[in-house]
Specification:
The chain has two domains: 163 residues, FAD/NAD(P)-binding domain (3-Layer(bba) Sandwich); 136 residues, D-Amino Acid Oxidase, subunit A, domain 2 (D-Amino Acid Oxidase, Chain A, domain 2, 2-Layer Sandwich). It contains eight helices and 22 strands. Strands 9-8-17-18-19-16-20 form a seven-stranded mixed sheet. It has a six-stranded mixed sheet with strand order 11-3-2-15-22-21. Strand 18 and strand 19 form a beta hairpin. Helix 1 packs across helix 6 and helix 3 packs across helix 8. The chain is elongated, with a radius of gyration of 21 Å. The relative contact order is 0.19. The structure holds flavin-adenine dinucleotide.
Length: 360
């Protein structure tokens, strides 16, 4: 079958969230012709996300393997996009981690003995040591190197960049409409893709028969924006949940975790709980009024590392998903690694390669 040149590409990318946007750019910059097809779902995980970039996370205060390099890659990509688009996308802000218990304080002390942790952690502040309205009865410390990314703005700017190159169109792709074409090529409707199809459609990739076998653990999350009269604090706050000062007294706070009911509908009761949770960061009332409440589904997976790479039996199918709660952290590094794999067959590190899940 003859395909007109306008219908011939190297890759079809399904989805223009964080994964699809970063990967499409990485491929285009490597000289590939890419068509991204996105179904314009306004409550995608990437558009709902707070955009937090936090190097030390969770109850166990863990640094992921290779954090220094990963952070460097994320910030380099955000700086490049800022320069290209002339807009601020990444706001670096220190993160004040507020202790929940004496046990947590001891855990931090033991982490602090290792130079890679100490490079990103301050010494402890005693309770009330920050001299602000923060409630910190066990004290706190500051994590550097983080901040937050305006993901909806980034995605809008990247959508325009892709459209200008004829690389983005609206539409919903049904995986059953995809067909192989030769060894590693694919067809979708009257388009041909010599390098195949890359699923970048978040947790929904796990519903496609090709990827069902992977250990997906999608998790719904909700966040709120509240208008308050607390304008003096300029740290991101983290104590179980987190709160980000967006400026002018607006605080973004979250987030919830739900594994059974997976939809993008905000739950009014949880909105109220998140608003009360925000108050708990502070000693004095902050008069919070809910101004926005959003819900989305994170593409979480077993092992907490993204799924990148090629289907073990179908060389025309590729996947970039599983960014979990850390799209801003893993997205830039993994999109570059996957583009190198697709364009130059540079092997992916096993921890990111979806083939780590193939039974041996
Ligand atoms: C409440 C909440 C808070 C979060 N906070 C943070 C945070 O602070 N920091 C952080 O780094 N991460 C955070 N995350 C996680 C982050 O959102 C994800 O890691 C990341 O955005 C996932 O990106 P993705 O591109 O894989 O998926 P998605 O963002 O879901 O993008 C998938 C895209 O594919 C499209 N699509 C789906 N199916 C089809 C189809 N069949 N055809 C065409 N298009 C399709 C969708 O419309 C969407 O545009 C949060 C998530 C939630 C829900």
């Amino acid at each position: 079958m003859e395909f007109p040149p306008a219908k011939v590409f190297d890759y079809l990318v399904i989805g223009q969230g964080v994964a699809g946007s970063f990967l499409a750019r990485a491929l285009i910059e490597r000289g590939k012709r890419v068509l991204v097809v996105d179904d314009d779902q306004r409550a995608s995980s990437s558009r709902v996300a707070a955009g937090l970039l936090n190097p030390i996370t969770g109850m166990r205060l863990r640094l992921a393997e290779g954090t220094e390099e990963v952070l460097k890659n994320s910030k380099a990509l955000f700086a490049k996009l800022e320069a290209e688009h002339g807009k601020t996308l990444f706001t670096p802000i220190p993160i004040r981690r507020i202790y929940d218990s004496e046990k947590e304080r001891q855990l931090k002390a033991s982490r602090y003995e290792s130079p890679e942790y100490a490079a990103l952690m301050s010494e402890d502040d005693v309770p009330n040591g920050s001299g602000t309205n923060i409630a910190d009865e066990w004290g706190s410390f500051v994590i550097s190197g983080g901040g937050w990314v305006d993901l909806p703005l980034l995605l809008d700017l990247e959508a325009t960049w892709l459209r200008e190159r004829g690389a983005l169109t609206s539409g919903a792709i049904d995986a059953d409409e995809l067909e192989p074409d030769g060894k590693s090529g694919a067809r979708w409707k009257d388009f041909r893709f010599s390098g195949g199809v890359i699923f970048c459609n978040g947790y929904k990739a796990g519903f496609a028969r090709y990827w069902k076998w992977l250990p997906w653990q999608p998790a719904k999350g909700e966040i709120v924006d509240c208008a308050t009269d607390e304008r003096t604090i300029s740290w991101i706050l983290n104590r179980g949940g987190w709160a980000i000062p967006l400026g002018d007294g607006i605080w973004r706070s979250g987030s919830t975790w739900e594994w059974k009911l997976l939809d993008e509908i905000p739950t009014p009761e949880l909105g109220g709980q998140l608003k009360s949770g925000l108050q708990r960061f502070f000693k004095k009332p902050i008069n919070a009024k809910l101004v926005e409440h959003r819900a989305g589904v994170r593409p979480c997976v077993r092992g907490n590392h993204p799924f990148c790479g090629t289907h073990p039996e179908l060389p025309w199918l590729h996947l970039f998903s599983g960014l979990g709660p850390k799209g801003t952290f893993w997205g830039p590094t993994c999109s570059a690694l996957l583009a190198d794999w697709l364009c130059e067959q540079k092997p992916l590190p096993l921890r990111f390669d979806l083939r780590r899940e193939v039974p041996r």
